[in-house]
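User: Teach me something about this protein's shape.
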Amino acid sequence: MRLGLALGYWGRGPSADQVPLALEAERLGYDSVWTAESWGSDAFTPLTWIAARTSRIKLGTAVAQMAARSPTTTAMHALTLDHLSGGRVMLGLGLSGPQVVEGWYGRPFPKSPLTATREYVDVVRQVLRREGPVELDGRFHTHPYRGADGTGLGKALKPITHPLRPDLPVLLGAEGPKNIAQTTRIADGWLPLYWSPTRTEVYEASLGAAPEGFLVAPMARAQVCDDVAEGLLPVKAMLGFYIGGMGHAARNFHADLMARMGFEEEARRVQELFLAGRREEAVRAVPDAFADEISLIGPRARIAERLELWRKGPVTDLLLLSPDPHTLRTVADLN
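Assistant: First, the predicted structure itself:
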């Protein structure tokens, strides 16, 4: 099981710790470092900054949001950074949800998310393979554009720049069972949002057709500490925000996922409290058991024991959310 460092996205501003953490992860033998985006900082610029200061560690987006860019634009970002970094890019993509797509990007959330994802990946692959001009007569993505409001002058094009790697890895952040199953067919790997090594049966059917070499790369908050309950507080805060606030009361993919993982009543309670403006109560309502299952929190011996559970399942890459160099060193040593 390879280790990765997940840096996430910025809060109010850039963190001075991100480059030092990436350098430490590379020194420790971590395989990859990952950036993200929501509705603030973008995923590619910080990754480029890190690329210029590192030499070996792979560079991943977890995730770049599909609504933020046309698929050809995303492919241009990936092939450019892949050249500049010497072939280290791993392109992680995610569809996000209606709240972000429509509220931030000002675009309709696709009525058929699976089709929209499949078309997006198809175009990205065409650009990277550069076997011919990009052409797709899709429901959501059309190349060249043939809409009634167009000029009709669009021309099918292939990239001027020759991609460094036509097989640059594409991974997808997917949550629903059908979306995960499709991911095994059209992508090189999957980026689970929550992963419990004790509940792998939740994903067993969806991953059943995964080909050999398929990457399963979940994120997990990691912290070496004596007080497990205190160490879980950042995990609970994150879960409270995602389950309570990242979606509508009637449509929240994160709450639905927690429900499928055996915490349906608790997920609905967290959502209810958060949407009522009782955010602190929502965080406290997140079960310690759930937060603990998807994390690596506690003393060294406890983390060593729990790390064994992660190794026994299908996880190929464990992406650690940890702002603590001591924790990164400890997990590297235990792995």
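Now, about its shape. The first strand starts at residue 2 and ends at 8. The mean pLDDT is 94. If you'd like, I can walk through any region in more detail.
User: That's plenty for now, thanks!
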